């Protein structure tokens, strides 16, 4: 990472971003007020693209029709990643499917 | 869906709680007061047997309903918001509510509005959004859209209380060590003994998930001892320097 880059502050900002997504308002209480070394690891948003994708998540609005497994396989191929999994979708409709 | 490293925790995180909006149709009208009373009875632990057409073993199991809100009711259709454990069958729930009401009911419409921390209005992308982002990256070399379509996996632990660790503790954790008190940089006030917690670096990288062995205030006070037992590790080895001395029988890191 670049010189003069405040990794500690950027890290704090990122953790606040993460908490804001679901409106988590509980406070972080410090035990050791210590900086983090910008030479190791990454602020998640600033990971190089290949690393970024490997630690990534896609929140998919799955169209009705294809199964979750099919959608996962398509996205996997599009993104060129080796492993992917899904966290579940809606229960299927009970109405029969009409063909033609 | 989760990519590569994040597949390790998607189960734990996404299979937590879900929120649905559903339309339940009653087969005969009942009093709104009576309906509210019965809905109230379904909040808490309930028993459910998975339906015939389901992907899991059909054995009676318990699920927790955290909240049922009645948004609208016209004597026949009830619009409900249900906050429940993953694996709760809404169709079954509507059916059972109908049985208790004594008039019968079934589910007409269903939409999931939250999975774990993700609400439907937030980061939801369609397949063509993914395709567009990939094409822009491949053909123009710009990764801006791709970085919007794919979000950092860390977002999935929004709702979990966090324990931030010092740089010196990171590498040992990725090698399977437990987290000792001196390795903690900060802790979210909501951490209780036994809580599932997200272990993060000071840069906000998710190291893994673990079980807190003490409350937030105890962790802040503690000078030694294991404070978090990791259950899943996400972060790869080799990102942070190795700080521990080679020693036999070492229990924790600090």
Number of domains of chain A: 2
**What is the overall shape of chain A?**
elongated
Q: Overall mean pLDDT score of chain B?
A: 91
Oligomer: heterodimer
Keywords:
heterodimer; A: 100 residues; mainly alpha; 3 helices; disordered C terminus; B: 254 residues; alpha+beta; Alpha-Beta Plaits; Archaeosine Trna-guanine Transglycosylase, Chain: A, domain 4; 3 domains; seven-stranded mixed sheet; 7 helices; 23% helix
Can you describe what's shown?
The complex is a heterodimer of chains A (100) and B (254). Chain A has helices at residues 7-20, 49-54, 68-79, and strands spanning 28-30, 56-57, 84-85. Chain A has 100 residues and is mainly alpha-helical. Chain A folds into two domains: 1-43, no CATH class; 57-88, no CATH class. The N and C termini of chain A lie far apart (57 Å). Mean pLDDT of chain A is 83; it is low at 90-100. Chain B has three domains: 1-16 and 119-159, no CATH class; 17-115, Alpha-Beta Plaits, CATH 3.30.70.3190; 160-253, Roll (Archaeosine Trna-guanine Transglycosylase, Chain: A, domain 4), CATH 2.30.130. In chain B, the strands form two sheets. Chain B has a seven-stranded mixed sheet. A six-stranded antiparallel sheet of chain B has the order 3-4-5-2-6-7. Chain B is globular and about 70 Å long. Chains A and B meet through helix 1, strand 1, helix 2, strand 2 and helix 3 of A and strand 1, helix 1, strand 6, strand 7 and helix 4 of B. Strand 1 of chain A pairs antiparallel with strand 11 (184-188) of chain B, so a sheet runs across the interface.
């Amino acid at each position: 990472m670049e010189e003069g880059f405040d990794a500690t502050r950027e890290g704090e900002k990122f953790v606040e971003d993460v908490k804001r997504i679901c409106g988590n308002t509980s406070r972080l209480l410090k035990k050791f007020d210590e900086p983090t070394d910008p030479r190791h690891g990454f602020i998640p948003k600033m990971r190089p693209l290949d690393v970024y994708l490997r630690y990534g998540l896609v929140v998919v609005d799955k169209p009705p029709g294809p199964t979750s497994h099919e959608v996962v396989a398509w996205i996997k191929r599009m993104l060129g990643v080796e492993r992917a999994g899904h966290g579940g979708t809606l229960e299927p409709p009970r109405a029969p499917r009409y063909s033609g | 869906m989760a990519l590569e490293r994040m597949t390790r925790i998607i189960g734990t995180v996404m299979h937590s709680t879900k929120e649905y909006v559903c339309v339940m149709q009653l087969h005969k009208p009942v009093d709104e007061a009576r309906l509210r009373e019965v809905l109230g009875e379904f909040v808490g632990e309930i028993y459910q047997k998975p339906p015939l057409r389901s992907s899991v073993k059909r054995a009676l199991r318990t699920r927790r309903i955290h909240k049922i809100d009645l948004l609208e009711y016209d004597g026949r259709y009830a619009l409900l918001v249900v906050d429940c454990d993953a694996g709760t069958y809404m169709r079954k729930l509507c059916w059972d509510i109908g049985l208790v009401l004594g008039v019968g009911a079934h589910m007409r419409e269903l939409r999931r509005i939250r999975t774990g921390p993700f609400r439907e209005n937030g980061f939801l992308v369609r397949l063509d959004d993914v395709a567009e982002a990939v094409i822009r990256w491949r053909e123009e070399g710009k990764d801006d859209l791709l970085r919007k379509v794919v979000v950092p996996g860390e977002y999935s632990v929004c709702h979990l209380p966090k324990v931030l660790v010092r740089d010196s503790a990171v590498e040992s954790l990725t090698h399977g060590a437990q987290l000792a008190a001196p390795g903690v940089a900060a802790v979210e006030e909501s951490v209780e003994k036994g809580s599932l917690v997200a272990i993060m670096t000071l840069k906000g990288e998710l190291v893994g998930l673990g079980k807190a062995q003490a409350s937030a205030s105890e962790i802040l006070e503690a000078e030694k001892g294991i404070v978090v037992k990791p259950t899943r590790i996400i972060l790869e080895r080799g990102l942070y320097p190795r700080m521990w001395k080679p020693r036999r029988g070492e229990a924790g890191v600090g």
